Amino acid sequence: MSLPPGFLDELRTRTSLSQVVGRKVMWDTRKSNQGKGDMWAPCPFHQEKSASFHVDDRKGYYYCFGCHAKGDAISFVRETENVDFIEAVRILAGEAGMPMPERDPQAQAKADKRTELAEVMEMAVNHFRLQLKTAAGQPARDYLDRRKLGQKGQDRFEIGFAADAWQGLWDHLKNKGVEDDLILGCGLAKPSQKGGKPYDTFRNRIMFPIRDARGRCIAFGGRAMDPNDNAKYLNSPETELFDKSRTLYNQGPAREAAGKGQPLIVAEGYMDVIALAMAGFGAAVAPLGTAVTEHQLQMLWRISDEPIIALDGDTAGMRAAYRVIDLALPLIEAGKSLRFVLMPEGKDPDDLIRAEGARAVQALLDKALPMVLLLWKHETDGREFDSPERKAALDKTLREKIKLIRDPSIRGHYGQAIKDMRWQLFNPRRTPVARGKGGKWQPEPTARASTKSSLLVAAGDKAETHLREAVILATLLGCPELIEEFEVAIDRMECLDRRHSDLREIILRHWHSGAEALKGEIEARLGPDALEKLMSLPHVALTPSVRNAGDKDVARMAVAEELAKLEAERGVSAEVSEAAEDIVGIADEGVTWRLGQAAEARNRAVRSQQEDTTEYELGDNGARINRGEREQFEALIDKITFSKSGR
């Protein structure tokens, strides 16, 4: 019946939820605070000893942290008294002293028809079950035996058989006095296009009743016995009772099993669900011949926070998994997600259970993949990323996927997870998961061998490089968002100092988290003194980009300038190293000239904080050269024994 506006609000206002629930539970007096309407008790919907069932009397809602049952006074009466919505309202209205409104004739007529349709469906269930036991049902029984579905399973899931006859069910129901419009309204028969009697929808099929959450049979699924039939599986058409996009096979029993702690498993078909349930995985459901819909996804999350999608290990199964991911990304929220189990190639859950038993399924469930890993697998499996363009294409695709996530916190965590996996894919020489004592990273030394052996480094000239690196790292800690602009250059920084290398790795991996979270990560992994040592360096502390932390423009200029200088120094070191490798006890004037040019190039790139007071001279090519450094380098050259020789 239809209720007038405001009636339910008034009913809820007059009803004390704690009094309604208190008739069914024993309150935990230690946890409960009756004065605030904050009440706790063991859950009446599943067996437990702890008080995980919470009633907020002021808001009028209950929630169980064990089985996730939730609702208001009306839903509590419906579930505990096994009555429909209107009857629950009537019970509460009587207790609250509120007269029930007059019935709406149209709404009542519709409700009455749905009740009649459900009764006809139950008659069909009983007819199909009897047909399975007849001689005509022998091939169907043989098939079920081959699938190892014995009498216990057949009875539990009420499996039946539709005989290979055009009006077998129709005649049976008509003999019971059922009206034509009810049979047709249930989707059990179709009108003849030739003016004859309607004919049965299901013929020569094994029948699986489909029940709603309340246990009413609302539809059937039929498995064809004829291998040449156009449709191997056929569902009832949509009716007043049945909307396949809003229905899950085995929903009611699965909800009960999930409430007792079993994992909610989403399989592809009836036989998979039945096989899982008979093997002990009672919280198994399946969509009805279509991809999972948004409404079904919300139904799954009302049963379990993290359903496990178990799909066939073939191409079609993988495609189905990726469709579910695309559907779920905009809908996920904190605590509500999906995990995925991929069956062995060519097997579904039913095949796996018959071949290897329940332990094989449990082993796969224990290794269920979070959604982010399957998303990564989809975009990277079987592909090469050997060019900047391909890497950029991957980045673009993943960014578009992550943008679908509405929750900013989850979006950030997905971004970090993708970045971690991307890091491992493109930087296998520095695996970020390698850890040492205390959980701190122990990355491989990142300095190149040629840099370590260069003459300039051997001469002790890495102090200035160390300072430049320190300035860059300290600046980025104040403006971590700049990493996106300079990521490639920062990754190329050679970081001769181990501490700088560790800092660089953490910054690159966690810059998405923000400045404060990044500093906390550094302290957690490298100790509380890591940042203090970096910031206490005089050259760092006086740098404008560090003094004005957060000024993005100043920070951008500083990082760009210091990186340019490091790049210039790297080029000089490579040139000197190459020249040094050519000196094997003998050298010619060409090598001497190359060393001189390298020295001049180095002096052009290096400018210290005391640049204005440094003495300069002009080199052979007119360049201004730091005299002290020129003398130091020439003294180094003098130590090398040269002799002329041809090459």
Automatic annotation (TrEMBL):
What SMART domains does this protein map onto? TOPRIM (SM00493), ZnF_CHCC (SM00400)
Per UniProt, the keywords (alphabetical) are: DNA replication, DNA-binding, DNA-directed RNA polymerase, Magnesium, Metal-binding, Nucleotidyltransferase, Primosome, Transcription, Transferase, Zinc, Zinc-finger
Its BP terms in the Gene Ontology are: DNA replication, synthesis of primer
Q: Which PROSITE patterns match?
A: TOPRIM (PS50880)
- The residue ranges of the Toprim domain are 262-346
- Where are the CHC2-type Zn fingers located? 43-67
Q: Name one GO molecular function term.
A: zinc ion binding
E.C. code = 2.7.7.101
User: Which reaction equation describes what this protein catalyses?
Assistant: ssDNA + n NTP = ssDNA/pppN(pN)n-1 hybrid + (n-1) diphosphate
Report if keyword Zinc-finger is assigned.
Answer: yes
What are the GO cellular component annotations? cytoplasm; DNA-directed RNA polymerase complex; primosome complex
Cofactor binding, note field: Binds 1 zinc ion per monomer.
Required co-factors: Zn(2+)
Quaternary organization: Monomer. Interacts with DnaB.
In terms of PANTHER family, this protein maps to: DNA PRIMASE
Protein name listed in UniProt: DNA primase
Q: Which organism is it from?
A: Roseovarius litorisediminis
